[in-house]
């Protein structure tokens, strides 16, 4: 009976995918139906709480996210906040699937994501900080990589410029530079370097860099991506960041 149900669910997901692609003239007929019944999307998101159907509904959700209007609805709905919980569910397969859907929402439609982040900057990054500081290694690694993926995209340049002015997020990156995982250290460096290289660093950022310059320089001197083609470029970037931290540490910024 269980195998029959599993295959039936897979068949339903396959049918869903096919139906979403069907057109009547130039219009996607099923898309129009879902746009008129958006509660279906909320239902699919909440299904991540049901282990038996979570993966099936995740596939259905990602098919929906391919359409800008449906992705926009999920981003702006109350259901979107649930992903910050779902990506840390104890069932690894479900958490990984939820993260795949979360990633699609933040990377598939650049302009829409930029508009969303602009309108919901504080609430989004408050929640995202919890992922970056999670006790779960996989959550930290995945969320840090995803942050790089969407924060460093050209349409989000104004979001990045705002993000790198904030001391709280600089401190998060400094903590991740000390992570036991080399992968996390390297990913953190690629965001940390933007804080340091920013020619318009606020005084608060300079103060943190100056106060912690010895520890930071030690971390950076020991940071290495290992063997690979990016070694030369990385070493050049690292040297520039080290020089900038040394320069900031000599400024009289600690005086009131």
Automatic annotation (TrEMBL):
SUPFAM superfamilies membership: ARM repeat
Gene Ontology biological process terms, A to Z: intracellular signal transduction
Any Pfam family: Mo25
Molecular functions per Gene Ontology: protein serine/threonine kinase activator activity
InterPro entries, per the entry: ARM-like (IPR011989), ARM-type_fold (IPR016024), Mo25 (IPR013878)
The organism's place on the tree of life at top rank: Eukaryota
Family: Belongs to the Mo25 family.
PANTHER family: CALCIUM-BINDING PROTEIN 39-RELATED (PTHR10182), PROTEIN MO25 (PTHR10182:SF3)
Protein name: Uncharacterized protein
Organism name: Quercus rubra
Upper classification of the organism: Eukaryota, Viridiplantae, Streptophyta, Embryophyta, Tracheophyta
């Amino acid at each position: 009976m269980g195998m029959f149900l599993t295959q039936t669910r897979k068949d339903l997901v396959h049918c869903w995918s096919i139906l979403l692609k069907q057109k009547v003239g130039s219009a996607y007929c099923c898309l129009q139906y879902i746009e008129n019944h958006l509660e279906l999307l909320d239902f699919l998101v909440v299904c991540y709480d049901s282990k038996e159907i979570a993966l099936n509904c995740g596939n259905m959700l990602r098919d929906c996210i391919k359409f800008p209007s449906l992705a926009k609805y999920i981003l702006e709905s109350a259901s979107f906040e649930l992903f910050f919980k779902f990506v840390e569910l104890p069932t690894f397969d479900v958490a990984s699937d939820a993260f795949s859907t979360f990633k699609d929402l933040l990377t598939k439609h650049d302009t829409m994501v930029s508009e969303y982040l602009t309108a919901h900057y504080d609430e989004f990054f408050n929640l995202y900080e919890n992922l970056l500081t999670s006790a779960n290694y996989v959550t930290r690694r995945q969320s840090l990589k995803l942050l790089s993926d969407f924060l460093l995209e050209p349409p989000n340049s104004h979001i990045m410029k705002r993000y790198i002015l904030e001391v709280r997020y600089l401190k998060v990156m400094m903590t991740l530079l000390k992570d036991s995982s080399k992968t996390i250290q390297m990913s953190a460096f690629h965001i940390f370097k933007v804080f340091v290289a920013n020619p318009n660093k606020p005084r608060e950022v300079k103060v943190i860099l100056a106060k912690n310059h010895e520890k930071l320089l030690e971390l950076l001197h020991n940071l290495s991506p290992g063997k690979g083609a990016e070694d030369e470029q990385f070493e050049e970037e690292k040297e520039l960041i080290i020089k900038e931290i040394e320069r900031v540490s000599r400024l009289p910024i600690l005086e009131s």
